[in-house]
Design brief:
It is globular and about 55 Å long. The chain has 394 residues and is α/β, with parallel strands linked by helices. Helix 4 crosses helix 9. The chain has two domains: 135 residues, Aspartate Aminotransferase, domain 1 (Alpha-Beta Complex); 189 residues, Type I PLP-dependent aspartate aminotransferase-like (Major domain) (Aspartate Aminotransferase, domain 2), CATH 3.40.640.10. The chain is 40% helix and 15% strand. The strands form three sheets. An eight-stranded mixed β-sheet has the order 2-9-8-7-6-3-4-5, sandwiched between helices. Bound molecules: 4'-deoxy-4'-aminopyridoxal-5'-phosphate and glutamine.
Length: 394
């Protein structure tokens, strides 16, 4: 048999490398370093979450409906009514997905045609450009830049300038990975105004909506005037309930966008793991009735405060960490040329893994992150303390 003399993978995947999270988790294992790189909790979720998982596993073994288990869609509708003061229709406006990653992929497959442009605010979550490229679309980048007070700011005129007649959508992540920024009400209003003026769709990735600090309140862009009609809001149980491996996510969107999403969704997973959906429905109901959400904030606030001080003491000047479970630090005082070299040094010489944030920028803007590192603090206290001990050795 003749072998074909070209790569067997399709053209659409040829530019992809292995994800930054896989690479640095493998390095953590190789050097037996403390993994403050990949964002996943290294502790068990609370007992009521694990119990819901065990119970659901007994009762649900067959396919769920395409749009998701009714119990989960109803629990999400109830939660949204409480948080947004808006009745989202569980039948026509909610879709359950395989985590937020598949939600992002399916939404883009459903909405983006070849050569459509999608605006990404950078640093961006790494699956955004890959999902856009696989749909044949084109990412267009608008950077956040830190100001003198280390606040990450968006230049709204730069956003306007990035819009062309081919621009179909903008992706917005708040609270923001990797910076920990929570977009202010003013910024969200400004972005909303631009999107309405240019008739853009908004894909709002709000997977960290329960992880805000210092009494901040999460604001969803979908709740601003004129925005519900053009916004798809993505959530995930993974972060909120410390079950990143369950891969249960969802999308809230008006009926026409939900219909389009479900036309793609039916050919991607068809439906999502039934017992895990039942478990998340149960967990959401319990969390609405107990103090879980405020306990979670207090739990992470303590970790954030602790690790923020650790970074200050280690001359790794932290940027404000307003939400998510990440802190970006300014590594200038350590004297490395770029973030990758710094992170390698930290892994091999200090046994602590952080993520080089330039991975989350387009080539022309990588320089913004060259003196930065992202640390995940969703780790057990003794791991954070051990990391502190190692960093103090500088
Ligand atoms: N969006 C952002 C901003 C994330 O940080 C993550 C994962 N950490 C995801 C989406 C993917 O979420 P999931 O694990 O539910 O697929
Ligand atoms: N979102 C997590 C992070 O930012 C990792 C998720 C993944 O490994 N794909 O660290």
């Amino acid at each position: 048999m003749m072998s074909k003399n070209y790569p067997r993978g399709a053209e659409r995947i040829q530019s992809f490398g292995t994800t930054v999270f896989t690479v640095w988790t493998q390095l953590a294992q190789k050097y037996q370093a403390l993994n403050l790189g990949q964002g996943f909790p290294d502790f068990s979720p609370p007992e009521f979450v694990r119990e819901a998982g065990r119970k659901a596993m007994e009762g649900y073994q067959q396919y769920a409906p395409l749009k998701g288990l009714a119990a989960l869609r109803n629990a999400l509708a109830q939660e949204t009514a409480r948080e947004w003061g808006r009745l989202v229709d569980a039948e026509t406006e909610i879709t359950v997905t395989v985590g937020a990653t598949e939600a992002i992929f399916a939404v883009i497959q459903a909405l983006i045609d070849r050569d459509d442009e999608v605006i990404l605010i950078e640093p961006f979550y790494d699956s955004y450009p890959a999902s856009i490229l696989m749909a044949g679309g084109q990412p267009r980048f608008v950077p956040l830049r830190p100001n003198a007070a280390q606040q990450w700011t968006l230049d709204i005129d730069e956003l306007r300038q990035a819009i062309t007649p081919r621009t179909k959508a903008l992706m917005l992540n708040t609270p923001h990975n990797p910076t920990g920024k929570c977009f202010t009400a003013q910024e969200l209003h400004d972005i909303a105004e631009v999107c309405i003026q240019h008739d853009l769709l908004v894909i709002a990735d709000e997977v960290y909506d329960r992880l805000l600090f210092d009494d901040r309140k999460h604001l969803s862009i979908a709740t601003l005037p004129g925005m519900w009609e053009r916004t798809l809001t993505i959530g995930s149980a993974g972060k909120t309930f410390s079950v990143t491996g369950w891969k249960i996510g969802w999308v809230l969107a008006p009926p026409d966008l939900t219909h389009a999403l479900q036309m793609a969704q039916q050919w991607i997973p068809f439906s999502v793991a039934t017992p895990l959906q039942a478990a998340v429905a149960d967990v959401l109901q319990q969390a609405q009735a107990n103090t879980y959400y405020s306990d979670l904030r207090a739990f992470y606030q303590k970790k954030r405060d602790f690790f923020f001080r650790v970074l200050q003491e280690a001359d790794l000047n932290p940027y404000p960490a307003e939400g998510t479970y990440f802190i970006v630090a300014d590594t200038s005082a350590w004297g490395f040329d770029n973030d990758e070299t710094f992170c390698h040094h930290l892994t091999t010489q200090y046994g602590v893994v952080a993520i080089p944030p330039s991975y989350f920028f387009s080539p022309q803007n990588k320089h913004i992150a060259h003196k930065m590192a992202r640390f995940a603090f969703c780790k057990e206290d003794h791991i954070l303390e051990a990391a502190a001990e190692r960093l103090r050795k500088k």
